[in-house]
Design brief:
Helices cover 75% and strands 0% of the residues. The chain is mainly α.
């Protein structure tokens, strides 16, 4: 009889501790992260097609293409799995590599504006639309991941579930950060005067 009372008392005590919520939110953040990776992979898969299409333009800047290819190689070599999501250093390296690829692709698109034949190429236009759509999907997936991590972190820091977090070692998860936070916090300089 005592054994049953102890089991019931333990079950009641654990039902309000948030253990199951930690499990649910951890899985939710892992699933959201998988979607982020899926969209980054989609972008990485588009790069070879974009580079091949651009190479057809004889006078196109080789340096720009080389930077895109190198950024893609770096971005696809750094993997942050759901198991390493709690490592802020791994996340920072991953975000930096993805940021470099995004910047290289942006430069490529800007430079491509100078090439009328390339702009007229239907294959390039289609790839550009796919890339823009993928960038939007990346933004949506990252936002969902940020929300999932925020929910988890609130649970890990709120009383009484913070006690459960301490007992079971559920620390706060790192979220996405902006690499150039200081730069974007200052207003842009706009100069309308001709030089």
């Amino acid at each position: 009889m005592r054994h049953w009372l102890f089991t019931i008392a333990l079950a009641l005590a654990l039902s309000g501790c948030g253990y199951n919520d930690f499990q649910r939110l951890d899985e939710q953040s892992k699933a959201a992260w998988s979607e982020v990776l899926n969209q980054y992979q989609r972008r990485a898969d588009l790069v070879p097609n974009i580079v091949a299409t651009v190479k057809g333009e004889a006078a196109f800047e080789q340096d720009t293409l080389t930077k895109v290819v190198e950024a893609r190689a770096k971005a696809t070599s750094i993997q942050v799995t759901p198991e390493t999501l709690n490592n802020p250093e791994a996340m920072a390296k991953f975000q930096a590599a993805q940021g470099e690829l995004g910047s290289a692709l942006s430069r490529l698109m800007v430079v491509s504006e100078r090439y009328p034949d390339l702009k007229a190429n239907q294959g390039f236009r289609d790839l550009r639309v796919q890339l823009e759509g993928t960038e939007n999907r990346i933004t949506v997936a990252r936002n969902r991941y940020i929300q999932a991590v925020q929910e988890y972190n609130v649970l890990a820091r709120s009383f009484p579930t913070n006690l459960t977090a301490k007992v079971f070692g559920y620390g706060a998860k790192p979220s996405f950060t902006v690499a150039n936070e200081a730069q974007i916090s200052s207003p842009p300089v706009v100069d309308f005067q001709k030089k």
